[in-house]
Amino acid sequence: MTPVAPATADIQRTGGPAHGARKPLTLPAWPVASILALYPLWWALGLGVLIFAVLAVPMLFLLLRRRAAGRTLRLPPGFAWWALFLVAVVVSIGALGADPAGTVAEHATDRLTGAAYKLVMYLALTVLLLYAGNLTEAELPQRRLVKLLGWLFVVTVAGGILGMVAGNFQFTSPVELLLPHGVRNKGFVQSLVHPYAAQVMDLIGGEKPRPAAPWGYTNTWGNNFCLLAGWLVVAAWQTGRPRHKLGAVVCLLVSIAPAVFSLNRGLWIGLGVLIVYVAARYVLAGKLWIIGVLTVATALLGVALIATPLGSVITARLDNGKSNGVRSFLIDRALDGFTGSPVIGYGGTRNTAGGRQSITVGESAGCERCGNFTVGGNGQLWQLLYAHGLAGTAGYLGFFGYGLWRFRRDRSAIGVAGGAALVSSFTAMLWYNSLVTPLAFMVLAFALLWRNSPEGDPT
Q: Which ranges does the record mark as transmembrane (predicted)?
């Protein structure tokens, strides 16, 4: 009788290769791809930003399952900084009961819902970062992820056009219909589940719609505009097809109108920073042709501003800085609060007692913006300092700052676009808050930079 070889005997006993030789489980691309590709659907259903928390659950399960199958869970460079930030967010919750001077007194439990929501979203986006970064090129090619981000810029422009031409467009979403009447009418809940095209505000004389769809707020729309614009260009040019390049150029030209009519000065500044950064990167790489391209583009933009009503809209907005005083007031309150709890902050935002002129001025049916302003609601930097102190601020800035430094030598299209997105986010944090979608696009830019680096190949 011929003896059975040990390896053959093992196969006969188990019905396949030895357990230790099993191929590690792959990660499917659908959790990330479905968030990005179907975001207009999620918005219409009333899920919107909630979809990031919903799909973080299967992403976490799939990461843990593959880890159990023998595949190492890779952490992005500088992740210790992000871990510090998350720890600071958790620890600062213990200060929710504090009432800093000049703020409305509330019980800690009244503030717990908002703090818990932010923590859940920060954790969900951490899972998104790890999942997108651990996907291999075979599982989700970088080119496809870039296309998905470029697609969302097209969605942003389409939402901007909708906000311009149908500023009062809104509807009740399916998720909204499922909520109890007393819950769905709350302002915070409305911002999450009620789709609308624009925020209608009086900034330059008379109420005018400012594009917001599908991102919920005009400021978020402007922030995402800057974060996503570069990916459209990269996606179009990486195909090498003239029709894709032409389509990208047309989309960028069309985007000028909603960008101007958004009356969003932060967006205009962000685009300037974005263009200067990209130009500097290309000039340093010896690609001086970018100067000629920018000269032509600037000339065309100047003609458009002179020959159309766009120029007068910009002039009117610059002459009417109604929010300047409120922003300065809130920055002062945030810095004053920071000195009162500099290490861990207060765990969340606070409402001011009154307005800029008097503590007796507050919100009313006739003047919703007269007082009770949100300290930390006028920029991610001020919220970090106020809500999570020096520890949280250092962790947040340290992570993205380290990423910029770590991948500074990546001169590829992904390297430049990813770096530009992070740079624009540092500018925007002076006047925009990042949670939820802007921070999601920041961590995806980081994941692309990470995967594009020599140490980023998980295969």
A: 41-63, 75-96, 116-136, 148-171, 221-237, 244-261, 267-284, 291-314, 385-405, 417-450
Q: Residue 54's closest CA among 79, 74, 35?
A: 35
Tens-digit pLDDT profile for residues 116-147: 999 999 999 999 999 999 999 999 999 999 99
Q: Is 423:412 a contact under the CB 8 Å cutoff?
A: no
Rounded-to-integer distance, Cα 35 and Cα 152, Å: 10
Residue 104 tokens read as: 């409305």
CA distance 241 to 277: 26
Asked whether residue 16 carries a pLDDT value surpassing 70, the answer given is: no
HSE-CB for 133 with a 13 A CA cutoff: 25
Tell me whether residue 22 is in a domain: no
Residue reference for tokens 């109108």: 257
Give start and end residues of each alpha helix (H) in 323-436: 324-340, 380-406, 413-428
In the 8-state DSSP scheme, what is residue 20?
Answer: G
Residue 196 has pLDDT above 50, yes or no: yes
- Contact between 346 and 100 (Cβ < 8 Å): yes
For helices 108-134 and 50-68, the axis angle rounded to 10 degrees is 50
Q: Residue 88, CB half-sphere, CA atoms under 13 Å: how many? A: 28
Residue 68's pLDDT band (boundaries 50, 70, 90)?
A: confident
Beta carbons of 396 and 384 less than 8 angstroms apart: yes
Give the C-alpha separation, 26 to 103, whole Å: 51
Quick check: 432 and 266 in contact, CB under 8 A?
yes
Q: How many domains does the chain have?
A: 1
Helix (H) or strand (E) holding 269: helix 265-284
In a domain, 459, yes or no: no
Can you tell me the distance from the alpha carbon of 197 to that of 179, in angstroms, rounded to the nearest whole number?
Answer: 22
How far apart (Å, rounded) are the C-alpha atoms in residues 89 and 389? 9
Residue 109 CB contacts under 8 Å (≥ 6 apart), including other chains: none
Please tell me the pTM assigned to this model. Answer: 0.89
Asked whether residue 193 is assigned to any structural domain, the reply reads yes
What range defines the domain where residue 164 resides? Answer: 28-454
Return the SS3 of 292: helix
Residue 1 included in any domain: no
As separate numbers, helices (DSSP H) first and strands (DSSP E) second, the chain gives 19, 4
- Contact, 71 vs 27, CB < 8 A? no
- Residue with tokens 């290769």, as numbered in its chain: 17
How does pLDDT run across 306-319, given as a tens digit for each residue? Answer: 877 777 777 777 76
In one-letter notation, the amino acid at residue 265 is: R
Start-to-end C-alpha separation, the chain = 44
Q: Which residue has the tokens 């500023």?
A: 167
> CA-based angle 409:415:417, to the nearest 5?
135
